[in-house]
């Protein structure tokens, strides 16, 4: 008799976005003529930048010729041309030194943030913000690092750090000692950002407690405020305690192409039960090369093109479109009397639902009356109840129309 991994049975409701998809499909079936506007899942709508397309076409041509054909990306860690572009542009430009051996190119930050917990022991205490990107929690549930489901979508054994209006959506340091801390800045879903001083608090905590920070920076390209750090490594000492996840999905419209990378510093340690320290970089390297065979040459060529002079300009133009959408959403909702957060350094606007209206209830009203899809805050955690996320990823005219429909509610 084969046993099931019973940890999977602890998982509550379906993963948030499939659940939203299910509700939207059910609505469409009974309302086939409704023109639905999707501002729910953060999926990009603008086509790839011309520099990316050109580089990918050239890479296809190389694959057609014996002399320049590529098979496996040896070791699956990423080609040097992409690693060097990452090191110089994403870190060197911010005075952060990163070595090629610390960069792991992959097919997405969802997989990387979900998989990274595998290299840590099962009895570590994890801490997450509330609300939180559900992948961090669900993957720890699957691994068996949590207790059973409690009420309000929580799990036993996890330390939840509420992010509310009162603390400007930035969590306090936990009172208890935690081992693995998930942080996401700019934040999904609230759109909040962390200053260098705020990140320093976490780095100091992690160094003092021998903890590790899993820092998801998938939305760093949307930062407009020059004082906000783009990388946790801008904080001195962070390389000793933090892993950083970056993604081309939102930055360069790669949600359908799939390319991301993770930085695992050589300084990063975890500890054996006897207290002896162990380097995490070679362990992640072993895991990565065992379970992953690399991102296609064509995809990596496209990713590298965003670092060319032309590529940078084109990608910035696309980001500006989304950020202008975010500004339209913020302004329109504010005019209608909603309290809104985010949308300034992130492509997500986090709004307060009207008094007494729960976030799933607001989801249903918006879907049924305005045919607009957003994401209920409660889907991101208990502290997300009473909030609602609108994504700025859509065409400007569509976002304008969504705002007009919401105004008529
Ligand atoms: C979101 O809408 O939160 C993101 O698109 C989800 C993801 O990146 O996996």
Brief descriptors of the model:
2 domains; alpha/beta; Aspartate Aminotransferase, domain 1; 4-stranded antiparallel beta sheet; binds D-malate; 409 residues; Aspartate Aminotransferase, domain 2
How would you describe the overall organization of this protein?
This protein is of the alpha/beta class and 409 residues long. The protein has two domains: 7-46 and 310-407, Alpha-Beta Complex (Aspartate Aminotransferase, domain 1); 53-307, 3-Layer(aba) Sandwich (Aspartate Aminotransferase, domain 2). It contains twelve helices and 15 strands. The protein has helices spanning 7-10, 16-30, 50-63, 80-91, 109-115, 134-143, 196-209, 281-291, 297-305, 309-335, 359-370, 396-407, and strands at residues 37-38, 103-106, 126-130, 159-162, 180-184, 212-216, 242-247, 260-263, 269-271, 277-279, 340-342, 348-352, 372-373, 375-376, 387-391. The strands form four sheets. A seven-stranded mixed beta sheet has the order 2-8-7-6-5-3-4, with helices on both faces. It has a four-stranded antiparallel beta sheet with strand order 11-12-15-14, covered by helices on one side. Helix 7 (196-209) links the parallel strand 5 and strand 6. Helix 4 (80-91) packs parallel to helix 9. The protein is globular, with a radius of gyration of 21 Å. Bound molecules: D-malate. Residues 41-43, 110, 188 line the site of D-malate.
